[in-house]
Amino acid sequence: MNIVTTLLVGAFVFGTPVFSKGGAKVQEAQSQTVIVVVGAAGAPEYAAQFGEWAGLWREACAKGGARFIAVGLDEEQEPSDRLRLQKTLSDESGQTASALWLVLIGHGTFDGRTAKFNLRGPDVSADELAEWLKLIVRPVAVINTASSSAPFLKKLSGPGRVVVTATKSGFEHNYARFGQYLARAIIEPGADLDKDGQTSLLEAFLTASAGVKEFYSAAGRLATEHALLDDNGDTLGTPADWFRGIRPVRKAADDASLDGYRAHQLHILSSEAEAAMAPELRARRDSLELEVMRLRDTKEALSEDEYYGRLESLLRQIAEIYSQSEMRE
Questions:
Q1: Pairing of the two strands 243-244 and 115-117
Q2: N or C: which end of the chain has fewer CB within 10 A?
Q3: What is the pTM of this model?
């Protein structure tokens, strides 16, 4: 490994800028969109909780400069929440490098065949949401915090998507608390596990999962929800206990690729350097970082010269992107 590669490897940390100037000016407006859908509460106490969680997402968007769209928080009216969600997704389907976040807060059901998210009025099924999302040609994160949400992961998993569910099975049908912990983690500085000045969706997922586990343990109760994250498109999902820090440390039995890398690239509250980067540069940087992670996962199959040769090429390209970003400031 030559001196250039040594320096680059030392400078590169997953999810952290390679080279960045301090005090970068944060862009006045981010073009990310966060759609928060609050479903049918079923009881007043749930309505209050779901409204509080949605408020935390709204707060995060206000601080991070993301566009916040709510469905289900106003007085029930025509058209139905189901039709409003469908139209909102259609309106956000334009091609862009900026991410679309879809957050579902509420209750879910599963009859052994079909999983649904309970809305005021007609519900929306995992199959229907999958059809609506086919129109989206931008990075997408779908976060279903409801009970019985796991089947949504299998239906929605795909290239360029991050999918998070509150449960690992459609039969985990009890009230899910994961949404509470996730909403808090999104705006909680303590959830920044790698201390890079921003909390990623992966870090929020891990922090929320730990919070749920602690709740059931402290209450002396058997956990009835186990969250999953999928961002490699294999429909399998990965639980939080497969990670050490922010790195996945276990593999599926069929040696499937690892989850978590893409989710760690998504933030609502970004660091100054991250927020100052143009969306198209960030998209290219993210793509190269994913290549670095995949290369690391296959290191044992390569010779040392081949591995470090590929790594140096990728890190040089990443460094050039940061250089271009700094020149635009």
A1: unpaired
A2: C
A3: 0.85
